[in-house]
């Protein structure tokens, strides 16, 4: 059974870097993982995708501030978003990504505030 | 970016009803479309991928159809647990995008 879980600080100061980790367990190999976010009361926004090989694709709207990485030895995926503002406040999800986003974490609420 | 427009944005229906949600893409995405269900405070759940393939474990009352620019999600007989928000998603090209959502509420 594949399980996905996000972790990281729930509060980030404006202009600082938001860092999240996604851990995937359950024995799957050679897959994509996507990050998605959802502001309160809003729809879903795709942030970017990374394969276990390290290949990445980023949403152009975030590309200049975004870095996705993977540690395959631990099945840990990382998201770093620099220079955050209040507009980056959202629930952040990670999900395994094949023909659709099939396994999702429960989401991590990140609030950007001083 | 490929824009996905769902209609309606809000739908009121009763248990036992048949409902259809439409998703229109701003350009041809072949069959690279997925549908998700999201309950309040929960992560989205994949229902359909490849426009019409039912995800393993999803109830067969859900079905998807379409190709190119016009797609539909149909729930044949609404159950109480189906009242949620539904999103379509295109995976044809980057950036991956979602429709704005359709909120399905109990009449």
Provide structural commentary.
The complex is a heterodimer of chains A (114) and B (107). Chain A has no helices and 11 strands. With 114 residues, chain A is mainly beta. In chain A, strands 2, 4, 5, 6, 9, 10 and 11 form a 7-stranded mixed beta sheet that branches. Chain A is globular, with a radius of gyration of 13 Å. With 107 residues, chain B is mostly beta strands. In chain B, strands 2, 4, 5, 6, 9, 10 and 11 form a 7-stranded mixed beta sheet that branches. At the A-B interface, β5 and β10 of A face β5 and β10 of B.
Q: How many β-strands of chain B, per DSSP?
A: 11
- Main pleated sheet of chain B: 7 strands, mixed
Radius of gyration of chain A: 13 Å
Count helical runs of chain A: 0
Structural class of chain A: mainly beta
Low-pLDDT segments, ≥5 res of chain A? none
Number of continuous helical runs of chain B = 0
Distance between the termini of chain A: 39 Å
Percent range for helical residues of chain A?
A: under 10%
User: What's the overall geometry of chain A?
Assistant: globular
**Strand-residue fraction of chain A?**
over 45%
Runs of chain B with pLDDT <50, length 5+? none
Helicity of chain B, as a percent range: under 10%
Largest interface: A-B, 21 and 22 residues
Strand residue percentage of chain B? over 45%
Secondary-structure element order of chain B, N to C: EEEEEEEEEEE
Using the alpha-carbon principal axes, give the shape of chain B.
globular
């Amino acid at each position: 059974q594949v399980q996905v879980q996000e972790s990281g600080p729930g509060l980030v100061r404006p202009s600082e870097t938001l860092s999240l980790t996604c851990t995937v367990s359950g024995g799957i190999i050679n897959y994509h993982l996507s990050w998605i976010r959802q502001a309160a009361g809003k729809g879903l926004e795709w942030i970017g995708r990374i394969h276990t090989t390290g290949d990445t694709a980023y949403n152009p709207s975030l590309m200049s501030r975004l870095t996705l990485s993977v540690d395959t030895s631990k099945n840990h995926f990382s998201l770093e978003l620099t220079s955050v503002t209040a507009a980056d406040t959202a629930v952040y999800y990670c999900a395994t990504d094949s023909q659709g986003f099939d396994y999702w974490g429960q989401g991590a609420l990140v609030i950007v505030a001083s | 970016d490929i824009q996905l427009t769902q209609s309606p944005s809000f739908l009121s229906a009763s248990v036992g009803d048949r409902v259809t949600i439409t998703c229109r893409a701003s350009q041809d995405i072949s069959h690279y479309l997925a549908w998700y269900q999201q309950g309040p405070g929960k992560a989205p759940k994949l229902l359909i991928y490849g426009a019409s393939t039912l995800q393993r474990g999803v109830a067969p009352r859900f079905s998807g159809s379409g190709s190119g620019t016009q797609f539909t999600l149909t729930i044949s007989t609404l159950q109480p647990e189906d009242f949620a928000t539904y999103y379509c998603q295109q995976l044809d090209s980057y950036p991956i995008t979602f429709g704005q959502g359709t909120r399905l509420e109990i009449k």
